[in-house]
Amino acid sequence: MTSQTGQTVGRLRRWMYRSGHPNKAAAGLNRLDAMVGASGLLRSRLICLRVRGRRTGKPIDVPLVPVVHDGHRYLVAMLGDRASWVANVRADGGRAIIRARSWEEVRLVEVEPALRAPILACYLEVAPGARPHLPVDRHAGLAAIAAVAADYPVFQVCPLHP
Fold first, then answer.
1. One pLDDT digit (tens) per residue for the chain, 162 residues
2. 102: number of CA atoms within 13 Å, CB side?
3. Are 64 and 47 in contact (CB under 8 A)?
4. pTM, whole model, 2 decimals?
5. Distance CA 144, CA 50 (A)
6. 3-state SS, residue 71
7. Residue 8: which residues within 8 A CB-CB, separation 6 or more?
8. Buried-state track 136-159, b at ≥16 Cβ within 10 A, e below 16
9. Residues near 68 by Cβ (< 8 Å), separated by ≥ 6?
């Protein structure tokens, strides 16, 4: 992808989430991505996170790119604290379901901001669609990533029933 094309794609992705929530175009793509993630077709790149809506109690499916760091799985909120799924996870005590071919009940444990930088660095490598949303270049180094880490929640994925 050329630099010009990458900048255009980045602007488009920021526009799709300009209010902190997906607009209609992004919501439609998210539904499609959630179905793909749940099917397990792109298991290493995309999963479907199912959380309970904090207001409605209804299940909400969110497509996410998981990251593995030091042998542990993590989920990152590319929109930061304003991502609805983050508020839903916090309201439900970290309970969620990951769907990627099969269902896995999990507890999402929030990582302290001081420990997020290396995880965010890995995330920026494996999730190119998230890069326009984080105000740091993936090649900037851990110090630059650490400077914004507090604004981007990271959750460790732990089995609910070990």
1. 455 555 554 565 566 666 656 666 666 665 665 555 556 565 457 889 999 999 999 999 999 999 999 999 999 999 999 899 999 999 999 999 998 878 999 999 999 999 999 999 999 999 988 888 899 999 999 999 999 999 999 999 999 876
2. 3
3. yes
4. 0.77
5. 32
6. coil
7. none
8. bebeeeeebbbebbeebbbbbbee
9. 74, 122
Q: Which two tokens stand for residue 149?
A: 């880490």
Tokens of 67: 């990251």
User: What is the distance between the alpha carbons of residues 143 and 116, in angstroms, rounded to a whole number?
Assistant: 11
Structural domains in the chain, sorted by start: 3-159 (2.30.110.10)
Q: What is the total residue count of the chain?
A: 162
Instruction: Tell me how far apart the alpha carbons of residues 159 and 162 are, in angstroms, rounded to a whole number.
Output: 6
